[in-house]
Amino acid sequence: MDHSHTDVLVIGAGPAGLAVAACLRRRGIAATIVDSGEAVGETWLRRYERLHLHTPRIQSALPGLRMPRRFGRWVAKDDVAHYLRVYARLHHLHPHFGIEVQRIEREDGVWRATTSNGDITARQVVLATGYSNRPIEPQWPGQATFTGEILHASRYRHAAPFAGRSVLVVGAGNSGAEIAADLAEQGVTEVRLAVRTPPNIVPRQLGPLPTTLVAIPMDFLPAWCSDPVNRLLQRLVVGDLTPYGMPLARSGLVAQQRATAVTPTIDVGLVAALRAGTVTAVPALERFEGNDAVLADGSRLTPDAVIAATGYSTGLQGVVGHLGILDIHGRPASTGARTHPRAPALRFVGIRSPLKGLLLQINLDARAAARAISRELRSRRVQRARR
């Protein structure tokens, strides 16, 4: 980079970082954007081929650019990558790539970001590195004795390499459920889905209405009000899956999301695969003994491959963990326009995944953060002018 100071530093050039920078630019503020990757949209291109957004097109656009109708209702991941590249060009955003921010400290009223390419100081900082920033790699007892293949879901692309093999998918969240369905639909011989935390499974849409649109008020309503209705809808639309090995969720959809940060599993094929017997739900994977995968009920499997849909972390602990502003899940206590008292002028966008959908939340938070940053910078200029 050719400078070490900026008014606004945006860390992350994904949807959240680009949205904040675009909103700032419309207010006459040119933010410096840094990202550890190589290009806009690259993380979307690397995801598994079957992936489509779980929010509809009209609910997924960033501020200042609609998604084209030709993308269809459920936008494919390659179209998301294309949209982000167009978005960056339209708003004249030029991120600096290959720069990893390692730590942020407050010094003399400004923020100092230590990066892989030198230090950057900034009056305002927006962390937009993503809700699912770093894969949580599995560490099962006896894992080293297993001679089959173990890979994290982030490295899964398509079912072809698993043809004719027995596959154990570990984790029934959105990634694990969709990967299991993809394997089954592509004819993989034997697919099992290991479940530790029983998910709340919901359909992608209720009649003509996308589920995430219906869920918008649930981000504000108390769980005791929303969850009885959710339970009824789940019974009517999804049905009882316990005969197929899928246990009931231990708490309601809203209660589970707020307590654990676990979002509901959007059904895009898993329920049909369970009913057809092409995916079998089994208890959680506890350990390996040689090539045996030992499950929580003591039963054993001998899979050829294990796909670990064991989730992601925000990756924020090393960057801002020392500031005391993260919760037990590694998420910031304040997001959007709000800042934590211990970290003035530091904001987070795109770090939480609400029921109404991440991209809609990014749209709202990016606008709010840009307004707050513009107001604070303007106030500072006024104060300096009066001195």
Structure notes:
With 387 residues, the chain is α/β, with parallel strands linked by helices. 28% of the residues lie in helices and 23% in strands. The protein is globular and about 75 Å long. It starts with a strand and ends with a helix.
Number of strands: 21
- The proportion of residues in beta strands is 15-25%
CATH class of the largest domain: Alpha Beta
Question: What is the distance, rounded to the nearest whole angstrom, between the alpha carbons of the first and last residues?
Answer: 33 Å
CATH architecture of the largest domain: 3-Layer(bba) Sandwich
Q: Which regions have little confidence, pLDDT < 50, spanning 5+ residues? A: none
CATH superfamily of the largest domain: FAD/NAD(P)-binding domain
CATH topology of the largest domain: the name is FAD/NAD(P)-binding domain
| pLDDT averaged over residues | 93
Helix run count: 10
Number of domains: 2
- Rg over C-alpha atoms, rounded to the nearest angstrom: 22 Å
State the helical fraction: 25-40%
Q: Specify the biggest β-sheet.
A: 7 strands, mixed
Shape: globular
> What would you call the structural class?
alpha/beta
EC number: 1.-.-.-
Keywords: Oxidoreductase
Enzyme class: oxidoreductase
Protein name: Putative oxidoreductase CzcO
Summarize this structure briefly.
28% of the residues lie in helices and 23% in strands. It has helices at residues 15-26, 42-45, 77-90, 174-185, 211-214, 223-238, 253-260, 270-276, 317-320, 358-386; strands spanning 5-11, 32-35, 96-97, 101-107, 110-115, 118-127, 134-135, 149-152, 166-170, 190-195, 201-203, 205-206, 209-210, 265-267, 279-283, 285-289, 292-295, 300-301, 305-308, 312-313, 346-348.
